[in-house]
């Protein structure tokens, strides 16, 4: 990351950590999310999804967690064996989801989970979407972290996600690292950290196209908004979108030769062309884009006007045809009054 021009690694790390913390919060113990996934600290998952969609315990993370927490060997073995048993239970109920702890406890999944883990309680962070384990007096074991240990765990595993971002996202879509602002890289990191790698690829692909001068800034903003927003995670998406909108100025040699308003010149689908035009109108503060778009697409505007005139003529003809029998019927009565 040090070879990027005008890129502050210090600024990036601050933005990255701020965004992840905003989406995840600090939870200084192990907890379950609404899918029953065992998690700790700043959203650090303790299981891995396999290719066949089964779940497997992430032994390296559990052992790293035990090292950072400085627990005894007996407690380490107890922690690993308990989470192994729970992972088997999780795999039996893969992809089940519960919006409340009460509904989870009543389910077969929740009942089996409590047999393995002991009591499951509401999260101390005040969020109903995280349920604490190993924290009550009746728990089979108790496990807590300090804030410093929570941060240490997060920092120890972050290189895994940085590597995924560089090698499985940016390289696969040909988006150079120097094309990203500090905020944009932080936004892509957040997507990777939360498992949204498909979304990260689509957004990075758009940034790469813009950096090479293949699309306009308006088109880039349209593609970013289209791909970042996820109805399932609206708050997280909005946070990421704010970071992705911090676009880095590309070199002059990569400036776009095609007009950003002449949509016919852009190799885009009709839907994407419409999105680009809408985004341009939304960002138009002084009417410049609107005037230029109308001028660059004069043939499209003319065709639209012709079609509109023809449509109006057809509608008028239909109205006349519909009203003609009524006029004849009125005349047949001879204007007589029935009063």
How is this structure best described in words?
The chain is mostly helical and 339 residues long. 58% of the residues lie in helices and 5% in strands. It is built from 13 helices and 7 strands. It has a 5-stranded antiparallel beta sheet with strand order 3-2-1-7-6. A two-stranded antiparallel sheet has the order 4-5. The longest helix has 35 residues.
One letter per element, helices H and strands E, the order comes to HEEEEEHHHHEEHHHHHHHH
Strand content: 5-15%
| Protein structure class | mainly alpha
The whole-angstrom Rg is 29 Å
* DSSP helix fraction: 55-70%
The averaged pLDDT comes out at: 83
User: How many helices does DSSP assign?
Assistant: 13
- Specify the biggest β-sheet: 5 strands, antiparallel
Number of E-state strands: 7
Choose one word for the global shape. Answer: elongated
Features:
single chain; 339 residues; mainly alpha; two-stranded antiparallel sheet; 58% helix; elongated; disordered C terminus
Give the arrangement of secondary structure elements:
Elements: H1 9-24, E1 30-32, E2 38-40, E3 44-45, E4 47-49, E5 55-57, H2 59-69, H3 73-92, H4 101-106, H5 108-117, E6 121-122, E7 131-132, H6 147-170, H7 182-193, H8 197-211, H9 217-228, H10 234-244, H11 270-283, H12 288-296, H13 298-332
Antiparallel strand pairs: 1-2, 1-7, 2-3, 4-5, 6-7
Summarize the structure.
With 339 residues, the protein is mainly alpha-helical. It is built from 13 helices and 7 strands.
